Write a sequence for this structure.
């Protein structure tokens, strides 16, 4: 940074030297120069020696003043003067301090390609139009505090070597700082602007925009902010506020910002921390293709439509306690670290299609009132926390993927309609009774009956293995598992029935040694009519027959109950 500053300083001084060599061709003492000014005579391409104090003229107004292509060696003072006509200082070099305090310019004030080599102040002055295109402010400070511009202000490609102060300034016309370079600290506090253009401007030191109002469009496209930047209590009242393709090398803070129009941050690079606090953006906000190199914090803000399409978040991203009044889109974005949307409210659709979350993600206690779309998203972090979330609209998680050891938490969430496959979440879903029951209901309403059965089976299994569960209930759970798979798997009941028939057939074969023993077991178990030839076998195995009949009745009844339940659910 110091190398860049030195190069900029050398280039400015080179400009001044060239101006001296090509401009001033004759010498003029300060007394003669004052006489020319008093008489309204133009001074061109002249070297003026000594201090030039226009207050010594003994008059507080002038028709106009023209000092073009000159070099003024001493200090210059034109404070308290009323200029009724054009003031032209273009291509002039001021080597000493310059004062234009409390002046009144009724016509244009021209400082194009002018070099101020020492401190300069325009404090409390009033301008119609000011032209400072390609001007150089090389001194340690340029003070424009409490200045009023009733017309346009042109600072295109101006260079401010030291600190520049635009505190309490009123810009009533278009203001253009396009291509301007601010090498010192810059302060626009308490300033009022209409149309403001900072395109391709560069701020090498801290830039402060505190209590600023832009009543027209504000354009910062391709601007570079090398150090910290603060927009606090700023009102963007125009239809557009654009930071497209901007570069923020240090922290950037938007605090208590109120934007009536759209804000553009597309293709912008944030190298360090970005903060958005307590702000309201009434129209659209675009961050598409932006790169966030450090922590991102959006807290207690209200947005309309907001677009984060194809963004890269290289550090933690926190979006807590925000209100998104319309659609939000994070499609194709990448979150390298933890991401949080805690306590946020989504009144429109929330789109996360094909988004990659590599760290933890949390929507704890968020309210998603519109459609929520996670189709094709990848949740690779250890924890995806959706506990206490209200999904009021349709939620799509088709083809969502989890890392091997990722956990999905849906504890105490309210789910209206969740479109997802059970196989996608079964190995990742943390157990919560109410969540499982809500998912079972959800799958049935979607007519995904197999997913509903599998979810119910997992629900009963987790209840059974709970160490705190009552022993009697756990015993009944085991019976339900072995007899009918908790009432969802008819195949278990059928297999159990076949197994019982085979067991009793083996018992009968110990004594009968014929195929009749197997047929006898089947007849007894199935309650089929028995012929006389089995009467002796029934007498010899009376207790076994009673037991098999009892078990057969129970399993047949259980089979009919489970089958009826399934038919009712599927109807």
């Amino acid at each position: 940074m110091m190398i860049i500053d030195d190069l900029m300083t050398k280039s400015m001084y080179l400009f001044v030297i060239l101006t001296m060599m090509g401009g001033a061709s004759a010498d003029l003492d300060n007394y003669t120069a004052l006489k020319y000014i008093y008489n309204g005579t133009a001074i061109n391409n002249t070297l003026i020696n000594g201090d030039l104090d226009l207050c010594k003229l003994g008059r507080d107004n002038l028709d106009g003043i023209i000092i073009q292509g000159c070099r003024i060696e001493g200090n210059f003072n034109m404070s308290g003067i009323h200029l009724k006509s054009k003031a032209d200082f273009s291509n002039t070099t001021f080597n000493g301090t310059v004062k234009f305090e409390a002046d009144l310019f009724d016509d244009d004030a021209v400082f194009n390609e002018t070099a101020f080599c020492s401190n300069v102040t325009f404090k409390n002055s009033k301008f119609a139009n000011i032209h400072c295109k390609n001007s150089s402010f090389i001194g340690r400070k340029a003070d424009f505090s409490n200045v009023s511009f009733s017309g346009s202000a042109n600072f295109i490609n101006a260079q401010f070597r030291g600190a520049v102060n635009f505190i309490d300034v009123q810009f009533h016309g278009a203001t253009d700082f396009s291509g301007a370079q601010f090498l010192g600290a810059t302060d626009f506090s308490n300033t009022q602007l209409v149309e403001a253009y900072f395109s391709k401007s560069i701020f090498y030191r801290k830039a402060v925009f505190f209590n600023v109002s832009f009543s027209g469009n504000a354009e910062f496209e391709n601007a570079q902010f090398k150090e910290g930047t603060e927009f606090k209590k700023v009102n963007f009242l125009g239809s557009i506020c654009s930071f497209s393709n901007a570069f923020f090398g240090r922290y950037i803070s938007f605090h208590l910002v109120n934007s009536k129009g759209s804000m553009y941050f597309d293709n912008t690079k944030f190298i360090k921390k970005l903060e958005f606090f307590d702000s309201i953006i009434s129209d659209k906000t675009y961050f598409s293709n932006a790169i966030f190199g450090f922590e991102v914090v959006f807290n207690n803000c209200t947005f309309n439509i907001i677009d984060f399409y194809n963004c890269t978040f290289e550090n933690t991203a926190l979006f807590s306690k925000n209100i998104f009044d319309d659609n939000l889109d994070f499609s194709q974005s990448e979150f390298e670290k933890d991401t949080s949307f805690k306590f946020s409210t989504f009144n429109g659709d929330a789109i996360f299609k094909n988004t990659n979350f590599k760290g933890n993600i949390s929507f704890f206690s968020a309210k998603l009132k519109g459609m929520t779309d996670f189709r094709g998203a990848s949740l690779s972090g250890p924890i995806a926390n959706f506990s206490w979330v209200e999904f009021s609209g349709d939620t799509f998680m088709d083809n969502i993927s989890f890392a091997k050891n990722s956990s999905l938490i849906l504890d105490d969430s309210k789910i209206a309609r969740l479109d997802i496959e059970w196989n996608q979440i079964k190995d990742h879903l943390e157990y919560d009774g109410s969540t499982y029951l809500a998912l079972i209901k959800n799958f049935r309403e979607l007519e995904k009956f197999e997913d509903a059965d599998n979810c119910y089976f997992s629900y009963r299994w987790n209840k059974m293995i709970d160490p705190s569960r009552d022993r009697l209930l756990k015993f009944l759970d085991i019976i339900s598992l072995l007899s009918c798979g908790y009432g969802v798997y008819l195949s278990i009941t059928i297999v159990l029935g076949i197994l019982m028939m085979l067991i009793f057939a083996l018992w009968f074969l110990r004594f009968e040694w014929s195929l009749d023993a197997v047929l006898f077991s089947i007849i007894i178990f199935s309650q089929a009519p028995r012929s006389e030839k089995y009467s002796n076998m029934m007498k010899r195995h009376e207790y076994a027959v009673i037991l098999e009949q009892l078990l057969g009745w129970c399993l047949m009844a259980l089979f009919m109950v489970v089958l009826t339940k399934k038919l009712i659910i599927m109807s």
